[in-house]
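FAQ: What does a multi-protein file look like?

Like this. Sequence, then tokens, then the next protein.
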Amino acid sequence: RDKRLRIKEDRDFAVYEGGEQITYNPFSTTAFSNNYITFNVKTPSPRVVLDRKIYIRYTIQLTFNPVANPSNTKVLVSGHDAFRAFPLTSCMTSINLQINGVGITLNPEDIIHALLRYNTCEKVLDLDYSTAPSMLDKSQDYAQLYNTNRNPLAYYGDNGYQIGRGGFVIKSLVNTNTQAVLVAEITEPLFVSPLNFGAGNSQGFVGVTELDVSINLSNLSRMWSHLTSTNGVVFNEQSIVPQISNPTLLLCYITPKEIFPIPTSVSYSYYFVRDIQTNQGIVVPPNTTANLIMTNTQLASIPRRIFIYAERPRSGTGQKTLLTTDTFFSIESVSITWNNINSVLASATKQDLYQISKKNGCNLSWDEWSGENSPRFNSTPIGQNDTEITLTGSVLCLDMGEDIGLNSLLAPGVGGNYNLQVYVNVKNIHPTDSIAPTLHCVIVSEGAFTILNNTAIPSDAILSKVDVLNVSQMPEADLPPLDAFYGGSFWSKLKDIGSDVLKGFEKALPVIKDIADVGVKV
């Protein structure tokens, strides 16, 4: 019926049930330096709900002393200088999150720029993540996109679609031709499961008495990005003197109404992340391919998904510096040995691998992901060579059971003993640098994080072969479209299984596991 003809005498009103009291609690610490930050939080009560979106706010002062400035310009120049995307996270060698004494450890600096290429659209970067510089690098070298709208170092007025990192607000700046001193306040999410980040919300923590966060930092000069070639101001690692101050966790507590029932046991979506790194010491010249082999690895459960990419090493030939972008080699082909089955995906073309990645939430276009040369034609002067831009490079994502086959008794989350080895043919698409790449295989296992009687129990092998067999007898349900998950977790297409987006599944038969959030055949 025409909506204009849906005439009713009465108006229906919804009753929204929220907390009795909402408390925002900035929690400061004095236990910090340029090498570490530590927080020890005691919650008000186990009955109080803690929002799982937790941010770290900090003040950063950077003092710039250039090695050379032959053009005698100011030290910092728009289009040449800006913070790196998520500058503190980019320098976190490790973060340890302890909930009720149980710890989860992640190495953010090695994975954040790759995983943010999934399920993280520009709208999320410019809104949900806009309290930090967030525009991701889009070319192999900053010079390639200089003076274009896609330059991530551009200031606010250069791009009407996405805010360049050079447009991030600062508190103070002294900028001369010999030295610059910049102060900014930045707020970044804590990218560690079972915390939430990105768009939307889901159930908060209840039963938490203690929450401790320990962060290790290194090479803080890499909080900054600098382009040297077009204005001549020369920086090196010693040119920047950083100083962190006022680190603060931004916490939100919700006090439920007295009549609100609090369960004694609550399970949350949890992703156990393991980054297997291999550096064979192979120096790859520009525009050259190389075969990289991941160390044969034993897994105690079947993961949900696997990310594969090759990038600059932390140290060695072509290492990461403040002058380098956070981009990747192109992946030409892969061959995977899974559970003694060889040559998985060996016949897949580069285009096939891109389509798989796109299906799994990749934000990159084919031009960006493939690393193929993007032309830039020069009309004048006659005889000047046309130029080519090499873009982001490849981050391949594979979903177990969908892109890598599993037999009828196996599914992601089933425990056992499985072997995994990855062979990758990659290409160095940087125009000038020889690089000894590090191959990353980021294994993401989906499980549950259960809080019970003020204790915490993380589990990643939550299913057995019997569970899989039982689920095969249950009714099927389709996952919602992938765009329902954009802005959510990059760990999985499922985002947070307890979220409202899966309400259509609530009548499905549960799998025979108390800690499982959903038990349907998908």
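And here is the next protein:
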Amino acid sequence: MRVWLVVVVLLTVCCSPMLTQPLSLDVEVGVVHQTSPVQTTISPNTGWMTGGEERLIHGSGFTDLAYRNTSYDGIEHQWVETTADSTFEAGHENAIVVDSNGHVHVVHANGGTHEL
């Protein structure tokens, strides 16, 4: 009889988080800061999007995004403006990407040594 009692108690303890969790996730909606309309074109507009090809994004309204906190999640995100390389001939062969975890990665050729 004790074995069954221990099994029932352990099952109850293990299943209790499932019984207390909400059935749906509530989204906390904050204030969304609107920015000026961004008008864009992408060239070329066909081809692989898995990497290895160059895409040019042309448009207007991007500078407003650099200096305003614009979000869809209502969280006040912190922006940091940083110069990666200010040496002569800097800015060639650069890439900026945001990974699936939201981390920003910057790759550039050093203007002085031409190393990545």
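Q: Is there any per-entry metadata?
A: Some entries carry free-text notes. For the entry above: The CA atoms of residues 30 and 75 lie 7 Å apart.
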